[in-house]
Design goal:
The complex is a heterodimer. Chain A has 3 helices and no strands. By secondary structure, chain A is mainly alpha-helical. Chain A is flat, with a radius of gyration of 20 Å. The two termini of chain A are 34 Å apart. The mean pLDDT of chain B is 85. Chain B is mainly α. The chains are: A mainly alpha, B mainly alpha. Chains A and B meet through helix 3 of A and helix 1, helix 2 and helix 5 of B.
Chain lengths: 80, 195
Amino acid sequence: MNMRKKYISTCIAILAVLSGFTSWAQDSTGNNTASMTDTLRSNGKIYVVIAVLVTILFGLLLYIVQLDRKITNLEKNIKK
Amino acid sequence: MPILYETIRNLYFHVGMWFGMMIFFIISVVYAVRYLRTNNQLFDIYSVQYAKSGIVFGLLGLVTGSIWARYTWGAFWSNDPKQLGAAIALLIYFAYFVLRNSMTNNDKKGRVSAVYNIFAFAMLFPTIWVIPRLVDSLHPGGMGNPASFSEKDIDSRMRMVFWLGAVPGWTLLGVWITSLFIRLQILEEKNFEHA
């Protein structure tokens, strides 16, 4: 039962991500004028800066999560 | 530059990543040389962890560069010489870890990877410092132009924030994270010796 729940929720998550991508793809390839007026190109392109910042934040967070995992491993080894 | 608009602020982040990467690779090669001279295990740990941080910053530089390029140059990847050079340099450093992890003998591992580290560092010169400056590029500073941040590109206030704020800031953040990895690695070695 638990496995099945997990499976279903994973499928829903994948579907949600995919539908997001398709709408984004339609926006950027629909036609030329539409692609130049999407969110990331609006307002002096400030959202590009935000996208870059979010990327760096997530990248560094992933790096620190790796550190967390290594520490957990060491803790387990010390307990043994 | 009219196509950049407010994205010029990315200078603090995208270029800051690359400066962080260069500084970490320089620290890494210095410790590789010190390891070869003294055979001190500690220097090997320093060298490896700084190379790792350099790769993380380099990858972030590449990804942020792609995002920036998508909305200013029109494509995520346009085979710009600087993009290619940076990608090759990063691949060479990936090979450093492949080589390192392929060996089980600890002493041999340290020595071979330290020598390879020096080679990888030497390859940085043509791939990111020489070739992109010689050929025509979408990046500033191509075709033998003087420094990328000349008076025409950015004003002096931005330059001051970049050199006094962004570069030391990102580098110190990276050094701190790397020092955490180094401390953990030292503890692991000690734990391994006791076990």
